[in-house]
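Troubleshooting log. The previous structure file for this entry was overwritten by mistake, so regenerating from the original sequence record. Sequence copied from the archived sheet and checked twice against the printout by T.R.
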Amino acid sequence: MTIIRFIAAALAALFIAAGPATAAVRQAPLTAQDRADLQRVEQYLSSLTTVQADFVQTTNNTDLYRGRFYLKRPGKMRLEYDPPIDFMYVADGTWLTYYDAELHQRKDVPLGSTIADFITRENVRLSGDVTVTKVSRGPNLLSVQLVQTDKPEDGSLTLNFSTSPMILQSWVAVDAQGTVTQVDLTGIQPGVQLDNKLFVVPRSRKDR
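Regenerated output below.
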């Protein structure tokens, strides 16, 4: 897997960036059960203060990477990969940063310009700048597919939850080129104490 392809896949896993506005997507018809379940999802995500978990990331069912996921709402998130991958993605409340530890390089984009912003907000709403396009269910499973309302062609993000109890288990992203990236969470620990230093990105070499 090339570095460029890996970066694209990792970004697709959660950080689908917004582009220039186009025609807004129409929300899928929702049943009363769909609306009730979406309300449960909003309440669950909004109730999370901190989360720590291990993750396994696969791309097109072939490439596999492991790492750790941290969430501290509002605004803070971190995905770091196990060696030999030296990349991490950090949201500090304002910026979403890709950092290459080997090259000491970073790239920052406004957090609000990415779909990652909605899950880090103080109050999560599955409406407005994100649109629900599909709700599906299985045994102890609820899946919610989302796109950016003004840029649906950039890709979709599907959140998968267990229902008893409700816990975020995984997400699946499909980017504009059709690349499918799945991130499965294990060892999920909600409500843990997380140091704010986790969400501070090292400076790039040129900033030193």
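Residues 32-47 form the longest helix (16 residues). Archived copy saved in two places this time.
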